[in-house]
Structures are given as C-alpha cells and as structure tokens.
Amino acid sequence: MKRLQDKVVLITGGASGLGAADATLLAREGAKVIVTDISDDAGRAVAKRIGGEFMHHDVTQEADWTRVIAAVLSKHGRLDVLVNNAGICRVGDIETTTLEQYRLMAAVHGESCFIGCQQAVQVMKERGGSIINISSIAALRATPPVLAYAAAKGAIRALSLSVAGHCRDKGYPIRCNAIFPGVIDTPLVVPVVGANFPGAGQPEDVANMVLFLASDESRFVTGAEFVVDNGATARLAA
Ligand SMILES: NC(=O)c1ccc[n+]([C@@H]2O[C@H](COP(=O)([O-])OP(=O)(O)OC[C@H]3O[C@@H](n4cnc5c(N)ncnc54)[C@H](O)[C@@H]3O)[C@@H](O)[C@H]2O)c1
User: Fold this and answer.
1) CATH number assigned to the domain with residue range 8-237, chosen from the 4 options 3.30.450.40, 3.40.630.10, 3.40.50.720, 3.40.50.11540
2) What are the boundaries of each domain within the chain?
3) 216 alpha carbon – ligand 1 mean position (Å)
4) pLDDT at 238
C-alpha cells in the first residue's frame, strides 16, 4: 500500500523547485496530484511526467482559487491535501525595500496562504484534510537582505498556527502545519545567495517532510513547525 494511495493533493507553484519535487514524490506514493502555477508550460510538463493534472493558478487571485478548488471538487469529489508552496523572493533590506515590493511579498505569500487556507477549510471540514504551508527559516531568524520576504514568511507562520487552532477548537478533522526550509537548491535562491550555494539542500529534502505531513502517519500532528535546514538555524541561535 502506498503512503498516499488515492489522496487528492493540490500543490501550488508546482512547476519548479520544491513544488515539482513534492509533486513527483507524492504522485509516486499514490496521490492524485493537481499541479498549479502561473508558469504554464513548465507546470504542464511536471504534470505530464508524474501522471497528474495541471491548472493555471495565480495564488494572489481569489477568483483563481475558487475556480481551481471547484474544478478539483467537480472531478475528484474532495480535496485531501493542500500544499501552499508558490513563492518568489526579492532582495531588499529595510532601507532599500519599497512599499510596492513589500506588498508584493505579502500578496504572494501571506495573502495567498490566507485565501488557500480559507477555501481549503471550507471544503475539508467534513471529511478532513491536511494543509501544509511552506514558510522559511527567514521567518525564524534575522535575514536583513530579504526583509519583505522574511516578513511575509512570518505571516505564514502565524497564520498556520491560527488555522490549526481554529480547526482543533471547532472539531474539524483538518491538520495545518508549517515547514521552514533552509537554503534549498532551486532558481528562487540564486538572486539571494548566488548559484551553487555551499551546503544547500535539495528539493527532495523538503518533499520528504511534505510527504509525512500529507500522509496519515502524521494524524496526531497539527499546529507544528518543521525546520528543514540541516541545523543552520540551530547553529545561529547557539
Ligand atoms: N529554495 C529555498 O531555499 C527556499 C527556502 C525556504 C522557503 N522556500 C519556499 O519554497 C517555496 C517554493 O520555492 P522554490 O525554491 O521551489 O522556488 P521556485 O522559483 O523554483 O518555484 C516557485 C514556483 O512558484 C511559482 N509562482 C510564483 N508566483 C506565483 C503565483 N503568484 N501564483 C502561482 N505560482 C507562482 C513559480 O512560477 C515557480 O514555479 C516558496 O514558497 C519559497 O519561498 C524556498
């Protein structure tokens, strides 16, 4: 029996990096994976390779969320797992970041996660589900060169806790957890740390954590925070 046999999984930003690795691993474990992204050609290619589906989806647009979730329900009858993964990163500290840049980070990360969680809770609250939000270690420690990104990832951390607490209080069988990756080798980090950053993790390192949280093996785990950074945060905190 595969670990995610027939679970219906929606992964945002699944065309590249972490999202593509999540899609690959979860499909291999038996999930029906719906990859969404604004990058259509790359997203379609991932979906084709893993035997999943692709839908165009800008996570900052509430109407896109409504359309995508309705399509998933119409085709599969349920949504078991949502991975809020889509993201971008822009360099800028407290002196150089414009309000426009700050708002963009807030929209792509915190706001999109809010909309996704809100719609997922609505469709999962009867039969249950797992919401997995991808934050970053930038939310856990000082990262001055990516101030707006770090603040937006901090919003995801707080949001995840509140969603988990709400579902527990209401008795909804929905788990909500957050993952905090360190530097992982994907196109996103190149403008921040350059190519071939020494000691970077691989997308599969995060995908394995996503797999655990998506599976029933984590049935007693909600409102929890999982750092996947090979100890980088612990080292700085010491
Ligand atoms: N790579 C790292 O070191 C690292 C570390 C911590 C957290 N993260 C987080 O992991 C997630 C995935 O990042 P990645 O490293 O795989 O980057 P990536 O650039 O390889 O992939 C991100 C994907 O998100 C998509 N995307 C961007 N804006 C979108 C939007 N508005 N709507 C839908 N899709 C959109 C992109 O098209 C792309 O396919 C992000 O949330 C990122 O912040 C990454």
Assistant:
1) 3.40.50.720
2) 8-237
3) 26
4) 54
